[in-house]
Amino acid sequence: MFKVITPKVENGIWLVRHLRTASGDWNVSLIKNMFIENDANAILSIPCSLNQRDDSLCWHYTTDENYNMKSGYKLGMSLNIKESTSETRKTGFNWKGIRNLNLPTKIKIFLWTSLREWLPTQVNLARRNISVGCLCPVCCNSFETTVHALWGCSRLKKVRNMYGFLHGVNFANSLCFQDFFSSCTQNLGKKELELLCVVLWRVWFLRNKLVQGVGQRGLENVVPWSEEFLEEFMVVNEKWCVGLGMVVRDRFGAVKACSTQRIEARYSVSVAEALAILRGISFAIYCGYDHLIIESDALGVVNMINSGIEISADIGVIIEDIKCLLQNITDARVKYVSRKANVVAHSLSKLALTLDVSYFWLDSFPLAVERCI
């Protein structure tokens, strides 16, 4: 799956160091000229380290790239999605349509699980002889079928009204989810269907938070959150580039400097977040600061940086570079903040996608920053 299939050219350049620029980044034009598209894309998705690091074997399907049963299960489920395309004639359901949706694999797996009625709703658990009540834990008024949990619950009325595309589509609890989803595919365009899938995935996430006792705040923001999530996913996957935004504030919160960088690659979200932290620290050092509090809304990345564990995943090279930079700073710590506290950086990352080169501002700032200050 990950083997280079480009035919070897005699006297060609095949050493990794020859494929990188003087700054340490990939030489994009050279790689695209040397390798076929699939190989070039795979190479450009690998983050580059500032330091030399030995290669190591790792499991590609987890964040830390160590195998666990959950990741094996998810991989098996994703393979089942592909195999299920052959079942179209038997069931009449267009499984291939799900595979062709422009969505993250985790959402496709969620859809496949829901369509199989394997989602652990109260009714589905009871069918498996698990001793639970069948009533919905959110509204406590109706049986919690898959359709009810994801769309028909009375607590989801605001979500249905905000979405607006499915007026007239029957979502009665008596329907199985496959019938409901088939109706949606017939009534919606591809982009509307993709947004609906993200909405359903987000609703299930918030439902689980309630069952776990965390609460179910955020239902009113499901549709706007889903639109932003899908927009960011589309930008990264269609343009094959990542936008980074960094902002430097003083101890009073006033913006002192900011920067944008556009990188031509398709990094995972966590790698992009780690890279933003790395470039942000470098930018702060360039601006002359040596007492830093680095803030990020990527909790997983923050935990990796603050842990003493060596990460063998591709993100590990970035984490190690961050730790090396931090050792050269007089006083620095990395902390997690909510997304709401990181609006300026996110605005800059979006701005970076519209720019051809990197920019930095020290006194006057772009409109995207001024609006958020």
TrEMBL record:
Concerning InterPro entries, the annotation shows: RNase_H-like, RNase_H-like_dom_plant, RNaseH-like_sf, RNaseH_domain, RNaseH_sf, RVT-Znf
Tell me which residues make up the RNase H type-1 domain. Answer: 243-351
Give start-end of the signal peptide.
none
This protein's source sits in the domain of life called Eukaryota
Q: Which ranges carry the Reverse transcriptase zinc-binding domain?
A: 87-158
| Pfam families in the cross-refs | RVT_3, zf-RVT
Q: Which GO terms describe its molecular function?
A: nucleic acid binding; RNA-DNA hybrid ribonuclease activity
UniProt-recorded name of the protein: Reverse transcriptase
The protein's organism comes out as Dipteronia sinensis
